[in-house]
Amino acid sequence: MSRVIEDRLNQLQQLKALGIEPFPSVTFPTTHTTKEILEQWEKNPEAFNKVALAGRLMVKRVMGKASFGVLQDSWGRIQLYFNRDILCPGEDKTLYNTVFKKLIAHGDIIGVEGRVFKTKTGEITIEVQRFVLLAKALRPLPMPKEKDGKVWDAFTDPEQRYRRRYVDLIVNPHVREIFRKRAKIIQTIRNFLIQQGFLEVETPILQPIYGGANAKPFVTYHNALGMRLYLRIANELYLKRLIVGGYDAVFEFAKDFRNEGIDKYHNPEFTQLEFYVAYKDYRWMMDFIERLLEYTAKAVVGTTSVTFQNQTIDFKRPWKRVSFYESIQLYTGLDAYSADEATLRRYLEEQAIEVPAYASKGVMLDLLFSKKVEPHLIQPTIVYDYPVEMSPLAKQKVDDPTLTERFEVICSGKELCNAFSELNDPIEQRKRFEAQLQLRRLGDEEAMVMDEDFIQALEFGMPPTAGLGLGIDRLTMLLTDSPSIQEVLFFPQMRPKQKADEESELSRVIGEEAVVAQLEAIGIRRVEDLLAIEPSVLQEKLQHRNIVVDLNQIRDWIRFAKRHLAT
RNA sequence: GACCCGGUAGCUCAGCUGGUAGAGCAGUGGCCUUUUAAGCCAAAGGUCCUGGGUUCGAAUCCCAGCCGGGUCACCA
Description:
Layout: H1 2-17, H2 34-40, E1 51-63, E2 66-73, E3 76-83, H3 84-87, H4 94-103, E4 109-118, E5 124-135, E6 145-147, E7 150-152, H5 158-163, H6 165-171, H7 173-195, E8 199-200, E9 206-207, E10 218-222, E11 227-231, H8 236-244, E12 249-257, E13 269-278, H9 282-301, E14 305-308, E15 311-314, E16 320-323, H10 324-332, H11 341-350, H12 361-373, E17 381-384, E18 396-397, E19 400-404, E20 406-411, E21 414-421, H13 426-441, H14 452-459, E22 465-471, H15 472-480, H16 505-510, H17 513-521, H18 527-532, H19 535-544, H20 551-566
Parallel strand pairs: 3-5, 8-12, 16-17
Antiparallel strand pairs: 1-2, 1-4, 2-3, 4-5, 6-7, 9-11, 10-11, 12-13, 13-22, 14-15, 17-20, 18-19, 20-21, 21-22
The structure holds one RNA strand of 76 nucleotides.
C-alpha cells in the first residue's frame, strides 16, 4: 500500500516541478453533466461541440499516442478520448506524454473541455481538447470492472463499504442511487404534508424523561445542569404538547435513539417521521397513510408496485384491513381475545416461543402477534384495534375498553407504521403510566416511565387527535429493495476498528489521553481508583505533573465515573 | 447474547492433508493514434487480523481475543 502512495506522492512532486498545483484553488465552470450529454447528444450533436465537465477519472487506458478514460461525475460516467496531437498541437508533447500519461492517475479529479463525438464502436465520447487537474488522489481506489452486466473485482465487503462509505459511493453507482431515492422519499413526504397544511417542527433530542415508545434509552449527562439526560427514543410526547399548544397538524422527521442490539433491521439511531393531526381519529389516519404511501411510492419508483427481496409489494390503496384479534385467529386459530394469561402462556410455550417471567397479557399478545402473524403479512396491511395493555398512549374504544383505537401498517412482515387516536384523558393517561411502572417493577426494562409534565399538558386539554409514526429507514429499504438498514444509512454504526482495549475504561471517562497517561503514572489505572481519591488531592498530584485541572472538571470525571460504573 | 461462516497484495480471491507466500485487476518500466473487463512484454509488490501454544518448521493444526457477515434471541 505504502508503495502505491509513494508513487502518487512522487507524481505530486513532479507535477509541482512542472508548475502544476495538485490541489489548486480554482473553480471549474461546467456546461453539462455526463447524464445530459448522454441523453441529449443524439438529438442535437451540434450543440455539443464545446462542453466542459468535471469529475473523477475512473479508468485510464493508454494506447500510445491516444488514450481513453472514463470520467465520473455526480450523475454518471462518460468516456473521454485523449489524443496527443489534439492536446499538444505544437512541438512540446509534455502535456500528453508526461502530465497525462505519467502524472494523472486513476482516481484523480479533473476538469475537461472538448467536443462530443461517437467512436467507431458507437460510444458517446468527449474528445478532450483541454484538461486540468483539480485534485490529486493519493490513495488508489478499488477498481471494479463491468461488461454486459457482469462485474469483476466488485467492491463488496460490507465492512469496508460501510467504514469507508465514500469509497463505496465512488465505485458503486447504485449505492449513490439508493441515497438519492432516500432523499426523494423524505422530500416527497415533506411536501405532501406541507401541502396538507402541516407545520414542520423540531423537538428536543436530549430529554430529561424519555417516553413515547417501549425501548431502552441512551443516557448522557449535562455538566452545567448537573443532571442526567436521555437521547430520545421518540418525540411523541413533545409533538402532542404542541397539539395542546394549538397547532392543528405538526410533523417532525426525527432521529431517535434506542440502546438495543444491531442487526439488519436495527441501528442505534434511526429516522422516524411522526405526525399528529387535531380533530381526526385513527379511521381518518388509515385513509391518510394509504394515500401518503401510495403517493410516495409512485413519486419515487414510478409505480405503486415495488420489488423487495423477490417479493412484489403493492402500495395501491385500499390495503387489506384486519383487526388485531382477527389476525391472530386467522394465523393461529386461537381466540386470544377470550383467552386468559395462562392459556396464552401455554400456547406460546408450546410454540417454543420464549416468554419472560414478568410477561403480562400485553407482552404475550405482542409476542404472539410478532411471531405468528407479522411474518405472514407481506402486502401493506392495516391491523387495527390493539389491546389496551400494549397501547399505553392510545384512546380506548367506546364500545370495548379492552381495545384501543390503534393500528399498525405491516409490510413485508415488518412493522412500518404505528398510529392511534391519541389518548387525551389525563386521568386515564396517568393510570396507563402507572400500569407501565408496574411492568417496570416486574422487570420489563422497556416499559414506559411516568411523565408528569406530559400529563399536566393533557390536563390543559388536548383536542381529539390522530397520530402516526413511520419508519423512514424501513420505507427506504422497501422502496430501494435494500436487504438491510445498513444499506440505507450512509454511516451505519460500527465497532471501532482499533482494538477495543487500546482505549481503557479510564480513557473513556476522562477523554484526554495526556491526562490519562499522568493519572496512570500516579497509580490511578481504573475507574474505581478515580472514585477512591479526594478531588483536591488528585488536583494537587496532577499539578506536580504539570497538569492543571479545575476542581469542577475533576468532579465531572467522578460523576462520569459513577455513571460509567452504574451502567 | 448464542451458534455458524469469514479476515492472505490497493481490490476480488486461490493456497488450509504443516516445508521459502500465488493469480487476475490496480500500480511501476517499455510498445501501441477510435479502445472499452483494451492488448502484449518486463520487473515489483505481503506484520497471511492479533496474541499465545504444538512443532526442527505454522497462512495452514490447537487455544484465546478483535473485526465483519449470516441465522436465532430482543427491539422499530
